[in-house]
Write a structure and sequence with these properties.
CATH topology: Maltoporin, Chain A
CATH architecture: Beta Barrel
Distance between the termini: 50 Å
CATH class: Mainly Beta
Radius of gyration: 24 Å
Number of helices: 5
CATH superfamily: TonB-dependent receptor, beta-barrel domain
Structural class: mainly beta
Length: about 625
């Protein structure tokens, strides 16, 4: 097995180098058109801005990339297109919850259980439970997503707690063209895995609307690991005038799942979940020649019902409500100033057996300012400070400093130092192995980056080196009834991240990324090396997407210490025989790798799925 992995590793390295070589050779005969890749992002600054002048490392996954991945859920696509990021999985569909649940997101070796160190946003609004403080990965369906932006590194200056390791901003679709658009789709695959969805969009003059329904289900790859989810989403926008827009949305997700526990148990330990999650938001955005900003209100809510044979029934209801106000001013002196204020209240009620916990809530109030000064038309210096007050932990100061230097339109250098932090969740304080005296986790991130465009912007590269140091991490000390969470952990990680995208022409493009991570101590779901290579070729009605992934030294358990190394190959072929019809078939894990990401949960071997998509 070890020899096989080494051979596969060499093969994938050869493939990666060969792809780059072919790219450069054929580029000489390429068309002269300049294919401009989008580098406009909002997540790193809260307004649309080129990522070349943001000192933070920001990645972007396009709608086309999401479709090419063939994923029903958006999070697994992050592994393929974003360096330094890893998302755990444990089934062909469905992440689950609790100790054996997947969907944990690790950035640069920083993660927690549950996943509270990486903040997930939907259109800029925080998405996490009021009690457990982590997002519910199963609620994020790919059909509603326009693009995804990822900040790799602390973003607490803009988003506060839970953005300690980074941010994932899921930006939803919006109807852009006048008239109606209807999209219906269905797919079927291995393990009786099914997906059905429908979307409708409408726009007339200043009014736009978008809505969708989704249903996914699977029998699972082992007995009693079935999963079933239904989602609904609606979004309405109105352009009041040339300066003001208003957008409102609502989503609801209902899902059921069963779990027999890890295969390391002597006998199955059934675990059942019945979860409802919802969210609504209202945004009023303004845009003037020298100023732009917005006001956003959001409310997340949910009910969780679980059962296992050891702890019995558990039920909780929670909510997370907040408001965000920010405004950016562009001065004639080359100065850009962003000022903002955030308010959050989160909490809920938990029932465990005959025990009833009263409503517990926490309030957070923050103000921040972020300044960028451009000098000599090439150098941009950035600095910011956030003051956050938590009703439980008091005040927290979060600074950031950085610079970007545009040597030319094709070459950019970046450097930054930033602080991240995370406040303990209500669950950590009061529910499981509780400790009301816990204090926030903290870290400092140092990084430098080089961005380069070549071949008339057909080839784009990014190389980043980073070092992160953290302390005060929360860990469970002791076992059984004596277990208690304490601020005892620390870490010192460093590594490099590389990504490239090359468009030979409008029909053929390649993407690749590589991550190397050096950990001072083992961390679950943090591979030492990660290589992803993809290619997409279109010819007339046909489109072929091939992706390969190599994961080396992935920790799946630290007690006992278990690592995994594996290689995957996925292929997706689609055809559009008419303007309105698209057919696709995909083969996954064609190397038939035997591997685990969550300890005790084998991942599927070779599996297939096919689908149909009708657009009007």
């Amino acid at each position: 097995m070890i020899n096989r992995i080494k051979t596969l590793k060499k093969n994938y390295l050869f493939l990666f180098l060969a792809v780059l070589y072919v790219n450069f050779v054929f580029a000489q005969s390429n068309v002269k058109d300049s294919i401009q890749l989008s580098d406009i992002v909002v997540t790193g600054s809260k307004i649309e801005i080129s990522r070349k002048i943001i000192p933070l490392s920001v990645s972007q996954i396009s709608r086309q990339d999401i479709e090419n991945s063939g994923q029903m859920n958006i999070l697994p696509a992050l592994n393929m297109y974003t360096p330094g990021v890893f998302v755990t999985e444990r089934n062909i569909l469905g992440f689950g919850v609790s100790n054996t649940g997947a969907g944990a997101i690790t950035m640069r070796g920083i993660s927690s259980s549950p996943n509270t160190d990486v903040l997930v946003l939907i259109d800029g609004h925080p998405q996490y439970q009021g009690i457990f403080g982590h997002p519910l990965a199963d609620a994020y369906v790919a059909s509603d997503v326009e693009k995804v932006e990822i900040i790799r590194g602390p973003a607490s200056i803009l988003y506060g707690s839970n953005a300690m390791a980074g941010v994932i901003n899921i930006i939803t679709k919006k109807q852009k063209e006048d008239g109606f658009q209807l999209n219906l789709g269905a797919s079927y695959g291995s393990f009786n895995t099914q997906k059905y969805f429908g979307t409708i969009g409408y726009k007339k003059n200043k009014l736009s609307a978008y809505a969708s329904v989704n249903h996914d289900q699977t029998d699972g790859i082992r007995a009693n690991t079935d999963f079933n989810i239904s989602n609904g989403y609606a979004k309405v926008g109105y352009e009041i005038n040339n300066h003001f827009d208003v957008i409102a949305d609502f989503s609801i997700a209902k899902y059921y799942a069963n779990d027999n526990g890890p295969n390391t148990l002597l006998k199955p330990l059934p675990f059942n979940i019945d979860i409802t999650r919802g969210k609504t938001s209202l945004s009023i955005d303004n845009k003037f020649e020298k100023s732009e900003g917005g006001f956003k209100f959001y409310h997340n809510f949910g009910t969780h019902n679980t059962f296992d044979s050891i702890n019995g029934k558990f039920r909780s209801t929670d909510n997370n409500t907040g408001a965000m106000l920010f405004q950016t001013f562009k001065l004639a002196t080359g100065t850009t100033i962003t000022a903002g204020a955030d308010f959050k209240q989160y909490g809920g009620i938990a029932n465990h057996g005959f025990k009833h916990d009263s409503l517990i809530t926490v309030n957070e109030l923050a103000a921040y300012a972020y300044v960028q000064q451009t000098l000599f038309e090439k150098l941009t210096v950035s600095a910011g400070l956030r003051l956050e007050n938590n009703s439980k932990f008091g005040n927290e100061l979060i600074p950031i400093g950085g610079l970007t230097y545009n040597l030319s339109n094709a070459t950019t250098f970046k450097a930054s130092v930033s602080k991240g932090f995370r406040s303990p969740t209500i669950m950590e304080l009061y529910l499981y192995a509780p400790n009301p005296a816990l204090q926030p986790e903290r870290m400092i991130n140092y990084e430098i980056s080089w961005l380069q465009s070549l071949l008339n912007n057909h080839l784009n590269l990014e190389l980043t080196a980073f070092k992160v140091k953290g302390d005060n991490l929360i860990q469970v000390v002791g076992i059984g009834y004596s277990a208690k969470r304490e601020n005892v952990g620390s870490f010192d990680n460093h590594g490099i991240e590389f990504s490239t995208r090359y468009m030979l022409n409008s029909n053929l493009y390649f993407n690749a990324n590589y991550s190397y991570l050096n950990l001072d101590k083992p961390v679950i779901a943090a591979p030492r090396q990660q290589v992803n290579v993809g290619a997409n070729y279109s010819y007339k009605i046909w489109s072929l997407h091939i992706s390969a992934q190599y994961i080396e030294n992935l920790y799946t358990s630290v007690q006992p210490l278990v690592t995994q190394s594996y290689a995957l190959l996925n292929v997706r072929l689609s055809a559009r025989p008419t303007k309105f019809l698209e057919l696709d078939i995909a083969g996954n894990n064609l190397t038939n790798a035997q591997y685990q990401i969550n300890y005790g949960y084998p991942m599927p071997g070779i599996n297939f799925n096919g689908g149909v998509n009708v657009r009007f």
